[in-house]
Design a protein that fits this description.
Elements (H helix, E strand, L loop, with lengths): L4 H13 L2 H8 L3 H15 L4 E4 L2 E4 L1 H27 L5 E7 L1 H4 L2 H12 L3 E7 L2 H9 L5 E5 L7 E18 L8 H5 L3 E4 L4 H12 L7 E5 L2 H9 L5 E4 H9 L3 E3 L7 E10 L6 H14 L4
Parallel strand pairs: 3-4, 3-5, 7-8
Antiparallel strand pairs: 1-2, 5-11, 6-9, 6-10, 6-11
Helix pairs in contact: 1-2, 1-4, 2-3, 6-12
Length: 298
């Protein structure tokens, strides 16, 4: 059986977006056209790929089976197209770069802006997420390179360069307040945190447990770092945030850092790729610009 790249792209868009409506926007198609393409693919494969319900689309067993193969096929097709374009001297293609929020604050955007000026025909897709989600996206071939903290541990992921950005997570409150609260004072107060399962939340809980303390009450959970910052700045809630992301708020007196040693975590960063992956020219250009903009010599 042969596969059409457009069919596989439509299938993956529905998987990643969770609904036909959102996937149609991503694919720049009408919803009926996308639905018809999925239906035709299901007919050729001999069964449904999705269970359709009021809240979106969920994969069937057949869809789960197809998913990894579809990602690999689309990735290999893109790699082949890029390789042929490079053979003809065309500096084209697509870069899919993932980075943690702290790196997206300054260094990564400067590198990508320089790359966009030098190679205007290369399409760039920047995905911001915590370490765990970046590792997952890299392994699923949804990303080519990842800028993350030095905590990615997987047999199929390797570091290709250091990214000399230094950062640390510390407790934060809105400006003012009591001077120098200790760890017990902080943990008695309510917090806003990323949802359980996110890497920063897991690291914070490990620090608290290592200090022999009980976890604090988390009054609000969110998937947004920006929402965390805004909630801390406008309430009595505490947050555990990277200093790179709150430097301007701290300088303006909107937020205050509480660098209690037991709740402070230093972070370093590296650039990662899938082990044994062949990097196309867009990824190699990006790697070069990331090194240049940060002064990495590796």
């Amino acid at each position: 059986m042969t596969f059409d790249r457009r069919d596989l792209g439509a299938f993956l868009a529905v998987v990643d977006c969770g609904s036909l409506g959102r996937a149609a926007l991503v694919m720049n198609m009408t919803q009926p056209s996308l639905s018809r393409r999925i239906r035709e693919l299901e007919i050729r494969l001999g069964g449904p790929l999705f269970e359709r319900h009021s809240k979106g689309m969920a994969l069937t067993a057949a869809g789960e089976t197809l998913l990894d193969h579809a990602r690999l096929l689309v990735f290999e097709m893109e790699q082949a197209e890029n390789a042929l374009a490079e053979l003809n001297g065309m500096q084209r293609g697509k870069l899919r770069l993932g980075a943690v929020a702290a790196a997206c604050r300054d260094a990564v955007p400067r590198a990508l802006a320089a790359m966009a000026r030098e190679f205007p025909d290369i399409s760039i897709d920047l995905f911001e997420a915590p370490d765990g989600e970046l590792a997952e996206a890299l392994l699923e071939r949804r990303l080519d390179l990842v800028v993350a903290s030095g905590m990615l541990e997987d047999d199929d992921i390797e570091a290709v360069a250091d990214f000399p950005l230094k950062d640390r997570f510390v407790p934060c409150s809105r400006g003012g307040g009591n001077a120098g609260p200790d760890i017990d004072d902080l943990l008695e107060r309510p917090w806003v945190m990323l949802r359980r399962g996110r890497t920063p939340r897991q690291l914070f809980e490990e620090l608290v447990m290592a200090a022999g303390r009980k976890l604090p009450r988390v009054a609000i959970e969110t998937n947004s770092v920006g929402a965390q910052i805004a909630l801390v700045a406008n309430s009595d809630l505490l947050g555990w945030l990277p200093t790179q992301l709150v430097s301007s708020e701290v300088a303006a007196g909107v937020l205050r850092l509480h660098p209690v040693p037991a709740l402070t975590l230093e972070r370093s960063f590296r650039i990662y790729r899938r082990r044994r992956a062949i990097l196309g020219k867009p990824a190699l250009f990006a790697l070069e610009h990331l090194r240049e903009v940060t002064g990495s010599a590796r």
